[in-house]
Amino acid sequence: GLFVTDYFTRTPRKLSPFRSFASIELFHFHIPEDTVIAVWNLITFKEQGGTFGDQCPDRSITVYFRSGAPSVINPLHTHFPRDTAVPGSFALTLTWTLPNRTTGVFNVTSPLPGDWFLAAHLPKDEGKISVKVKGLGLYEECQYLFQPQLIVQRLVNIAVLYPGYVTEQSMAPHNRSSLYKVFVPSYTSRVLVEVLRCRGAEGCPLWLRVRAKAPPLHNSTALDCREHTPCQLALDLPFWQHWYYVLVEKHPGVPGPVSFQVTVQLTDCSRPSLARPPFLPSSASMNMPHSFGSAGGLALGDSPPPTSPNGTKHPVPIPTASPASERCWPVRPTLRNELDTFSVHFYIFFGPNVSVPPDRPAVFVINLLPVLDSGGVLNLELRLNVSSLCGENVTVFGCLNHEVPLTSGDNASVTCETESLAGFLLSVNATASLSRLRIPYPQTGSWYLSLRSLCATEHGFEPCTNVTAEVYLRAYLSPCINDCGIYGQCKLLRTNNYLYAACECKAGWNGWGCTDNAEAFSYGFQLLSTLLLCLSNVMFVPPVAIAVRSHYLLEAAVYIFTMFFSTFYHACDQPGIVVFCIMEYDVLQFCDFLGSLMSVWVTVIAMARLQPVVKQASVLYLLGAMLLSMALQMDRHGLWNLLGPSLFALGIMAIAWTARTIRRRHCYPPTWKRWAFYLCPGALIAAAAVLLYAFVETEENYFYIHSIWHLLIAGSVGFLLPPRAKPSGHLGPLPRRKGCGYQLCVNEQEELGLVDPAVASINSICTS
Q1: Which residues form the EGF-like domain (predicted)?
Q2: Quick check: helix, strand or coil at residue 728?
């Protein structure tokens, strides 16, 4: 056949250590139909400071592949919530072959068409400290970037088999196989593929292989035509609304050409005694996709297409068995009600209570939209009305299957599995009247729920007589499992144009629904951490008292503001259940950060002892408040938000002190006691606080390191706040020169920074 190669690529993304599914990087691809091979080229490289990270350590990268929906991964081996079905996926670990780059290749032969998802992450950090000093640019963090590329090779112009018609084929000696496809509509219970009039050098040296959705593989359903006469391959309960691919393959080493005929017969389960009519209906009546078009341009009643050497002609009648088990029952649709993103309820007409008769199953269909619905959780709930059983030992079984209902008449359907199908089983009875099922990241398409009522006997389950069970049925789509509980937060994530939801757990809880308490914080630990973070703010009471005593009322107001909002912010910021919020979290966080930075700002400006003209105007106080508000709005967690204002204020203080030192011709402040007992201890305490905040504080030790930070910062303020100048009461009124103008008064005691006015003489000089 003719092959076409398509190429897809994605932008490189930075990988993160795994903590939850919210920390992975998800990539979305779409594989077209008739693809025979898909090759993923997985490129990973290191970066550090904008260059290749040759010095970065090698960290393994795990990549997950899944068709139809994102992978449900569990690298930490945590427990899933109850009643949760975990779909499988394929995982691949990449190792480094070069110092700064590695490449992996993942091939999939005859992949399923549609959406494919790749998830990648780094291993979990074990005891490593992620310091805030990285944000200063003093240390360049190692970054691991991952870029997947996809190359697909697909066949074009695959021959289409029309149900009820025979297609002739002559396979040349140099040809190995012939590929066909047939579309299977809804309400098809059986697909029968047969090879007729096979002639070759060694009888019929052919293999017949059939597979749904994609070309057959070596392990697909197969039949050796040399050993079976007639060469018929039957598939019961095929997938509805999908292409089935038929591969006729020649045995190796067979010389000469091989001629044969191939035909397909579809059994309509709504009419089990009839096969699909030989005259092909239109594509609309067969629910064929638009890409199929009208089959050969035929409508109902048209004449068949002309015969050609490798074409289609009237079939030879094929007898088909139609056992009672091939009957199918009407499928009741559900009404889709979209409330929000991944919040969809599926309502049943004349429900939610449904009756399950004893002689036939009740079948419902739930349609999940492609791409839109695969990023949430499909929830199913069955509740049995025990009063409807009339005292009988009745069990209602529910089978949830993808793309085809499982409604066979025997009791084997209790397992919800066949040779080619695997579904999910639910059961309710008088003892256990409630059953739930959760499927995270479900595959899109049609999900069929078949309900059957069976009575328990000594010989197993048998059909009930004259008992119609009543079941409450609830089906809905939610973003996360139980909204991640009280110890998690359900986050809506996006990768390009694809949305998905995942839980982010806290307080030591883990798992897909934040239900694994193996490493959870106890209630006492949560209470202790909350009390430490809140009560450590009481250390601001002494600085407030000192500021009020020294008549620094503006500074005292800022300290009270900081103490109040820091206390209630940390009471609201706790990850567990010991939480108390008086305002919205964002408001408390902003006020806490602003108060902390303003406390540092006003303290250093007060230490600068600027001239009264500047200080009375409060220019720097107002300017600092505006600039700090802007900085916090840009990045609240950046270390520069603390160091930037602090360094700027210290620069102002250094300039003011240097100017006084030059003008007075002696060091400022002039007394060694001020340096030894106030300035040096206060500076050391503040420096220790900054070092703890920048280099030591992590998420694991946050509650006690940050409490120490509160104590140190408040303590440093008490040491660094300058004293108030106290003028002597025996001084008489100063002489004043009359006339127009203004007076500029300089208090030498304030310049010297003295506490006791008796230490030095007081001279107030006023000039006009």
Answers
A1: 503-514
A2: coil
The domain total for the chain is: 4
Average pLDDT over residues 143-170: 93
- Tens of pLDDT, residues 566-612: 999 999 988 878 888 999 999 999 999 999 889 888 888 888 777 65
Residues 662 and 654 sit within 8 Å (Cβ to Cβ): no
Of 120, 114, 188, 118, nearest in space to 368 by CA: 114
Do the beta carbons of residue 46 and residue 144 sit within 8 Å?
Answer: yes
Which pLDDT score is estimated for 279? 38
Query: Is 669 or 766 the better-scoring residue by pLDDT?
Result: 669
Residue 496 within a domain? no
Is the preceding omega at residue 352 within 30 degrees of 0, hence cis?
yes
The reply to whether 186 and 146 lie within a common domain is no
d(CA 166, CA 264): 8
Q: How far is Cα 49 from Cα 382, in angstroms, rounded to an integer?
A: 56
**pLDDT at 20 exceeding the cut of 80:** yes
29 and 88 co-located in one domain? yes
Vertex 242: Cα angle to 286 and 333 (nearest 5): 65
What value, to the nearest 5°, has the Cα angle with vertex 206 and ends 203 and 211?
155
CB 713 within 8 A of CB 543: no
Q: Using N-to-C axis directions, what is the helix angle for 541-549 and 553-572, rounded to 10°?
A: 170
Per residue in 343-357, pLDDT tens?
A: 999 998 877 889 888
- On whether both 178 and 92 belong to a single domain, the answer is no
CB 528 within 8 A of CB 704: no
767 occurs within a structural domain: no
Burial of 29 (0-12, 13-18, 19+ CB in 10 A): buried
SS3 category, 660: helix
Helix (H) or strand (E) holding 449: strand 445-457
pLDDT category, 658, cuts 50, 70, 90? confident
Give residue 8's domain range. Answer: 2-126+139-156
pTM of the model: 0.78
Whether residue 250 is found in the same domain as residue 363:
no
SS3 content of the chain, % helix, strand, coil (to 5): 25, 35, 40
10 Å CB burial of residue 491 (0-12, 13-18, 19+) is middle
Question: In this structure, what token pair is assigned to residue 672?
Answer: 């060694």
Q: Are residues 576 and 693 in the same domain?
A: yes
Burial-class residue 676 by CB neighbours within 10 Å (0-12, 13-18, 19+): exposed
Is residue 209 within 8 Å of 247, Cβ to Cβ? yes
Does the CA dihedral 515-516-522-528 come out positive or negative?
negative
39-70: pLDDT as tens digits: 999 999 999 877 888 888 889 999 999 999 99
Judge whether 454 lies within some domain. Answer: yes
Closest CA to 596 of 469, 733, 709, 735: 709
- Tokens 């300290």 identify what position? 559
Kindly state whether residues 598 and 678 are assigned to the same domain: yes
606 & 547 share domain = yes
What φ, ψ does residue 175 adopt, rounded to 5°? -90, 145
Neighbouring-strand partners of residue 114 = 31
Q: How confident is the model at residue 727 (pLDDT cuts 50, 70, 90)?
A: low
Among 449, 479, 509, which residue terminates a domain? 479
| Contact assessment for residue 168 and residue 305, using Cβ atoms and an 8 Å cutoff | no
Is residue 726 in some structural domain?
no
